[in-house]
Amino acid sequence: MNILNTKPIANCNNAETLLPQFVDGELSARDAWQLEKHLANCRDCSLKVEQLKLTIDLLHDTARLDTNDNFMAKLHARLDDIDASASDTRTNTPRPSLREIITGYTRVLHVPGVPIGVAIGAVAVLMVALIPGLKTTPATQTTAKPDSHISTVVEAQLAQTAADPLGDAAADQLVVHPDSAVQDSYNP
Amino acid sequence: MVAMGNTMHADFALVQRAKAQDRAAFNEIVLRYKSKVYNYIYRQVESAADAEDLTQETFVRAYLSINSFQSRASLNTWLFRIATNLCIDQGRKEKRTRSFLAPRPKEEDNSIEQDVPDSSFDPQELALNTELGVKLEAALRALPEKLRTVILLYDIEGLSYEEISAILDCPLGTIKSRIFNARSAMRDKLAPYLQSSV
Questions:
Q1: Most confident by average pLDDT, A52-66, A106-120, A125-139, A174-188
Q2: B1-104: which CATH topology?
Q3: Was domain A3-60 assigned CATH 1.10.10?
Q4: Is the CB of residue B144 less than 8 Å from the CB of residue B95?
């Protein structure tokens, strides 16, 4: 740092901007030196700095006050009240039953508890009744090989034809199973 | 710096005990900080009774919310933040009350009595100089709220720029600028009473 190359503080406005750091001793050595040079030649700024330092001293030495003697007693009385009311809240609140917990949840959701249970049950019954895929199928049917399935169907149709030679129940049965071997023989 | 570190360490231990419902630890916190908090509030509100009530309220709120206190901030900062919020609320109430009563001079007015300057000024005797003390208190109360708050926290309670920035939730630059403006305003108000050597 070449101290001789530093610019002098040209006017009082420039000096004013450096005063906050100067009075707190936070100004760099170079700026402090420049400001002191200005202050040596400017009585107005010098007076301002002096008064500012005196004001700060005055603030630092402000009289200290304290609370009244009964401050702690009053505070502890208030804290005791707070503790007592918190304790009352804890002890006076009975433990909720399962029914109250469920009712509480349904109240939060704004729905009545019993009707929603009935509704869920009804939907479940309807699903089982209306959706064929959900019906339970015998294990033999699902695990049986295609050949045995075909022979079972053919046997059933033959038995039906024998029982009702003029009816077309066997044909109806064949339409239900379009990819079966029986259909091929019926519509070659 | 070491002393400050020790204070923070001791405060941390007290807060941990207070969080575990140790009333003696909370009592110790109150004894440590009640004077600082009271001095700060006293110069922000209109009466000693209000200052006493708000100091009580500061510690009641601290007691109720001690479990939410994060040790990232210092206890000092946290308590002053609670106190500052209470003072702001109180200021609003007083303003509303005043609007129903007689009009008062604006905060910015230089309403200090223009007495004869005190020629016996001596920085070492300031605390004992009652007349100058009265002028100082009047000058502080005449400052706008934002300037008064920073000068009380910085020059009277000795908080750092960073702590004040955290309390007021303001950038550091704003705090520094406000402190300088507040000091300059105080200097202008007290100039007639300051015996300078220049």
A1: A52-66
A2: Rna Polymerase Sigma Factor; Chain: A (1.10.1740)
A3: yes
A4: no
